[in-house]
């Protein structure tokens, strides 16, 4: 059975992207497109960490608030956050107020700056691009992690990052185009230009 739904516009999307206009727009314009700038990638790493245990729709609805709260995810600014900033964030109803995830974001900003000495976050993460990408026809066929996401998770932890488990890193790899898990038959399959 296909996991694709044909919308009123005639385009095929997975069920998770077919109903909610916000999720549909995200799917149609952002998800799976390459992110190759440090700030953009740091934002995605941060938001994937906040998403852990929650739905992506929840994070997406709060994304503007997250950006405002975390200085547009500029790692140089976030790395300088103080105890006062942590208190401010814990009072901010516009974001997910999880102290461990807030501390991880600040910690990961510092680790991002350190990684510049080894070529930078973008080169580091994209270095885990696999030789090929899944060809799922149903949502059930989409893996939740891969040997590359396990390796990326371990490598980032070694560099001082936290909240970067293998499943979270696979979601990151999907979101930024390192793997293409758009369902075969989706109007977005192959749209990243990374995979033919």
TrEMBL record:
Domain of life: Bacteria
Keywords: Glycosidase, Hydrolase, Metal-binding, Zinc
Binding of Zn(2+), residues: 182
Signal peptide span: none
Keyword check for Hydrolase: yes
GO biological process entries: base-excision repair
UniProt-recorded name of the protein: 3-Methyladenine DNA glycosylase
Species assigned in the record: Corynebacterium glutamicum (strain ATCC 13032 / DSM 20300 / JCM 1318 / BCRC 11384 / CCUG 27702 / LMG 3730 / NBRC 12168 / NCIMB 10025 / NRRL B-2784 / 534)
